[in-house]
Amino acid sequence: MPSVFLKTYGCQMNERDSEAVAAQLVAKGYSLAPSEAVADVVLLNTCSVRDNAEQKAVDKMTNLAGQFRKQRPGVLLGFLGCMAQSRGKELIDQLPDVDLVVGTQKFHRVADYVDDLLAGRRDKIVDTEEERGSEATIKEHLLNGAAKGKAVTAFVSIMQGCNQYCTFCIVPYTRGQERSRSIPDIVAECRELVARGVKEITLLGQIVTSYGRRNSESAKVGKCESEKDGGAGRLSLSHSPAFSPATSPFVQLIEAVHAIEGLERIRFTSPHPKGYGDDLVAAYARLPKLVESAHLPVQSGSDRILKLMHRGYTRSRFLEIIRQLRAVNPEMGITTDIIVGFPGETEVDFAETLALAHEVEFDNAFVFKYSPRRDTPAAAMPDQLPEEVIEARHSQLLAIINEIAERKNKVCEGRVLQILVEGPSRKNPARLEGRTRANKIVVFEGSERHIGQLMDVRIVRAAPFTLYGDPAIVNLN
Ligand code: SAH
Ligand code: F3S
User: Which label site among 40, 230, 372, 444 has the fewest CB atoms less than 10 Å from its CB?
Assistant: First the structure.
């Protein structure tokens, strides 16, 4: 059977989509190629969130096409995901060697399309249609696959799309309207993963705090009774009637996943400050498997900019959530996303973002240079900032974020922290790597049998992004 090389750009949702596509291809008998050089099919799963992410994938495909045209003209080339969705056929017009373009609601058709193209039944395929129920099609996992070794952690996609329409963001256009899977469907997938040895599950969606708030097709046909509770879009759970009326569908979902025996840790990404209710804060106190880690995108520290971004919260509301989370657990690891150089951002606005970074002391943050995206309101706003200004603010904020991150890591030196051992360290495969509950990476010398275990490690050294555990004082429980 032919082999496929799949390269992924962008976020964890893209990683998850690629994994499901790879699992479907493997189920059909394809093998996964270790590199593009030996593959019969090369698929790029793309990201559109910033221009440079799109550019990288286009450049890569241009190079591949040039190389293969001369040496191996039979190789099949395809674009998947967000850029495929937003550009569609235009990609083939630009790069005629591309055979396949598949959007974000059709990942589950990729394996069939590859079959059709390889068998010569079709010449080119572009599929960017919407599909009802597509949110429930990302479910196959590649556990224990050639590339992954023994899988200890897994991502589970709980919803697709976003209706928040932040003015800078292309996601609502590439991923579509919010659609949630039903709780029973998600729990069944999680159970299966745990049965196969997974210890930690990360629930994934573009805006998980909106989970289940809009009735989607699969929620209706699932065992949920979203209409019976007054039409609030709440998903009630037939097997677990004990929720108070204030419990949001997302917290109900966490609670249901929490009940799975053998599962040790739950994470989720990404929530939105606007939907961050008291019940979610309280869940951290109530549910021990929900680890003390929160990725909560703030985007800006200026109320004026937050409003222009259409974020739906203020700086003080964001700070209030952070206070609440730290009150529940002072060890809470808190990370964020920040955009610098949004149109019209003044020195005063930027100073408020810097002040917020100092005030919150994030454990880490992704700092992004604003990138105008097609179809988004912000791209048409006046006062787009010059590249040099954006560049300078980016470096200034990043330096502060890194300095704080390093200082917070240093605090861990000498402490004993619980880690879940995930496998060989990415930087040095002779060592092992795990994560603390607060989501910090710990590298230590251990042996294969530690993989998949929860263990206590004494932190002997802190580098800016990594902690090092002492093998001599490893305390195996
Ligand atoms: N809710 C999603 C957001 C996806 S985009 C999630 O958290 O996964 C991820 C991050 O990219 C956003 O939080 C934002 O900080 C950044 N981003 C989105 N659009 C951008 C743009 N036009 N320019 C720069 N950064 C952007
Ligand atoms: Fe994008 Fe805002 Fe949704 S950042 S994914 S539109 S919450």
Answer: 230
